[in-house]
């Protein structure tokens, strides 16, 4: 049973590693997109700050607050619940377009469109953390079975077999003596 459990855990560990590598690839692509695009969006804000007063920009940012609704759902990967985020953003552009530069309008619009990408990176990071934790636990269990429990059980089996063989030889010799004694009495 320990050997079968060891094989099952090893198979689970391989499956987890495959899923983990798929997540790493998706994370790498999403992270690369965020890392390359986010500085461009920040440059837009910097341009807007240069072309307008900081008070106009801060007022516009305060008034352009939308409502962000983030739903956290769970997806199961090999019985491990990983998060799936659903983002819904309602815009509220109640600031004056006359007082703000077009760069700020573009920056706010682009950042609102870019927000789901940032949340996707967070989702993938958390999924990778959870899978990595489970891989570590499974690997420890596999190693414990492989290097501790199974060898101990095998040693116990050898010991019990040798004791049983010894007891069987003892019984056979005892039976032979008894038979010998009976044969000598009947003569």
UniProtKB/TrEMBL annotation:
User: By its UniProt entry, which Pfam families does this protein fall under?
Assistant: ATP-synt_D
Tell me which stretches of the chain form a coiled coil. 121-170
Q: Does the keyword Methyltransferase apply?
A: no
InterPro entries assigned to the protein according to its UniProt record, in alphabetical order: V_ATPase_D
Q: Does the keyword S-adenosyl-L-methionine apply?
A: no
Question: Which Gene3D superfamilies does the record match to this protein?
Answer: 1.10.287.3240
What are the UniProt keywords, alphabetically?
Coiled coil, Ion transport, Transport
Q: Its family?
A: Belongs to the V-ATPase D subunit family.
This protein is called what? Archaeal/vacuolar-type H+-ATPase subunit D
Q: Which organism is it from?
A: Candidatus Brocadia sinica JPN1
């Amino acid at each position: 049973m320990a050997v079968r459990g060891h094989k099952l855990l090893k198979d689970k560990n391989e499956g987890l590693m495959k899923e983990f590598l798929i997540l790493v690839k998706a994370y790498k692509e999403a992270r690369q997109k965020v890392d390359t695009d986010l500085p461009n969006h920040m440059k837009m804000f910097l341009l807007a700050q240069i072309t307008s007063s900081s008070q106009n920009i801060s007022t516009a940012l305060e008034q352009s607050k939308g409502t962000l609704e983030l739903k956290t759902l769970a997806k199961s990967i090999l019985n491990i619940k990983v998060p799936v985020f659903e983002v819904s953003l309602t815009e509220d552009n109640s600031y004056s377009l006359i007082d703000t530069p077009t760069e700020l309008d573009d920056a706010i619009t682009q950042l609102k469109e870019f927000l789901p990408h940032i949340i996707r990176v967070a989702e993938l990071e958390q999924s990778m953390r959870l899978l990595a934790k489970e891989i570590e636990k499974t690997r420890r269990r596999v190693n414990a079975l492989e290097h501790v429990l199974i060898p101990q059980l095998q040693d116990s089996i050898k010991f019990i077999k040798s004791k049983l063989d010894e007891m069987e030889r003892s019984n056979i010799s005892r039976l032979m003596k008894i038979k010998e004694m009976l044969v000598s009495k009947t003569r």
